Amino acid sequence: MIKYQLHCDDGHDFEGWFPSSEAFEKQKKRGFVACAICGSNKVDRAIMAPSVARTDNRTQALPTEFVNEVPTPLISDEERELRRRLSELRAEMINDAEDVGEDFAEEARKIHFGQRDAKQIYGRTTLADARDLLDEGIGVLPLPPSFDDAN
Ligand SMILES: [Zn+2]
């Protein structure tokens, strides 16, 4: 289908869809192409400035970019942005912290009881251990997940 900008002898502008340029010429010759406003069949294609034609090409190219992008990533742009922010937050949280790995609960208690530097630490612990720590008045924050594997 082709969209034509049409123009009648009364000066009305309107748009029409045609299967092809030949179909348009045929329909016009038979007087089937009528002005959408006054019904006049003295209708012809409006002459378009090159800049208008280029604008049309550009708007038609946009969905193509979109279509190309869809099958490739498994995650949406929003998801990617969320992951990026979480990764940034994670990096910020562990920036000055020491990775104590599985010993997190133990090391956290040592800090709490003044048995080691009150340095920021991070590591892994079970939910049950984290609850115990919180019960003991030791602040524990969940660390945002790492998306290193995803990259
Ligand atoms: Zn008209």
Any idea what the radius of gyration is? 34 Å
Q: Summarize model confidence as the mean pLDDT.
A: 76
Task: Classify the beta-strand content into a percent band.
Answer: 15-25%
Bound molecules: zinc ion
Distance between the termini: 43 Å
Question: Total domains, how many?
Answer: 2
Helical region count? Answer: 5
Which secondary-structure class do the elements indicate? Answer: alpha+beta
Helical content (DSSP H or I, runs of 4+)? 40-55%
Give a written overview of the molecule.
By secondary structure, this protein is of the alpha+beta class. It has 2 domains: 2-69, no CATH class; 77-135, no CATH class. It contains 5 helices and 5 strands, in the order ββαβααβαβα. The strands form 2 sheets. A 3-stranded antiparallel sheet has the order 2-1-3. A two-stranded parallel sheet has the order 4-5. Strand 1 (2-8) and strand 2 (13-18) form a beta hairpin. The chain binds zinc ion (ZN).
List the helices and strands and how they pair.
Elements: E1 2-8, E2 13-18, H1 21-29, E3 43-45, H2 50-69, H3 77-94, E4 98-101, H4 104-112, E5 121-123, H5 127-135
The structure holds zinc ion.
Residues 8, 10, 12, 35, 37-38, 40 line the site of zinc ion.
